[in-house]
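Our consortium's second objective concerns turning raw sequence data into structural hypotheses that experimental partners can test. To show how far this objective has progressed, the report includes one record in full. It was chosen at random from the queue rather than selected for favorable results. The single chain below, 375 residues long, was entered without modification.
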Amino acid sequence: MNNKVNISNFNSYLLVDRALLRENVRTILAGLGRDTELIPVLKDDAYGLGLVPVARTLCENPAIRTLAVAHVSEGLQLREAGIDREILVMGGALPFQLRAAVEAELTLACGHIGFIPALADAAARLGKKAKGQIKIDTGLHRIGFEPKELDALVGELSAWGEHIEITGAFSHFSDVRNDAVNQEEFAAFMEAVRYLKTHISIPMCHMGCSASTENHPAYNLDAVRCGRRLYMDRPENPDGSIREIASFRAFITQVKKRPAGEKLGYGAGVTLERETVVATVGVGYGDGLNQKLFEIHAPVLAGGRRCKMLCCCMDQCMIDVTGTACRVGDEVTFFGYDSTGNFLSSQEIAAMVNRDEGCGLTSALSPRVKRIYKD
């Protein structure tokens, strides 16, 4: 068992390599050029990797001037931790959150009629100027102004603009795998921006994401918002330029040889086809393991080799370690690197059960999986 990492009293841990994160940032920036800014996306606790520790690592790089989150609460958490960069809240801010957001100088997505007056009123009451970016709906239909609403938006900005500083405009691709849809949505965004610029100043425009920076650099504009690409390579045809920075490891609590025909798990869900050495691991779906992976007997790393998942309960799971020298206390790696450098990509694992990317696996990990950071 590797005792170099202190996991305190936790049964499992997610090891986040900050040196690799820094390296990935440098790689992305080198591919963008001087005219395009990188906006790291830190939503959902930085995809489960830890909002504040990841933000602090990113802010070591002076080229990072803006961070993006999904909710006001995430922006406030960054401010409370002392993060002083511009923080863009990409989701819809609720009316009762506006005062706190303006006080913390968060930049809010302005995405529907009536939001500008409400935000301006909150700013006026505080004697401050609120910051906002205009969200354009080009097809995803979550939040954002549609083309037919732009005249009304301009009217609201004309009436309330003295209380609001617009720092940019942005949109989001609805299906980054579909080139024809991408082109149509990008054209719609640019048309909306051209119209708005005849009435107001828009210092920054951005629509690009991790996948578009890899496949369609023409969409980069003034900035790109990267989430997944900060943390792992592309799911299909990875080129190795981006390293996976997180490894999810747990520990074996029991090892027993089981005869052929023995049944395992709730409802006797698994029947062993042969004599099998079964290791019990002290994590389960309560820790964020995807139960579908056990249904297809996806691989894990144990004893330096790939072993099959067998069945999963809330707090424990079982794997087939036949042919290994695994013992109680040994590590099992569900994705990422094991302690000796063997690698199991989270993208490979995620692709086995759905169209999600590996960041869906890290985001699902519960708080009882200890986050540990190394350089």
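The partners drew two points from this record. The mean pLDDT is 95. The domain at 246-374 is CATH 2.40.37.10 (Lyase, Ornithine Decarboxylase; Chain A, domain 1). Both points have been shared with the crystallography group to help prioritize constructs.
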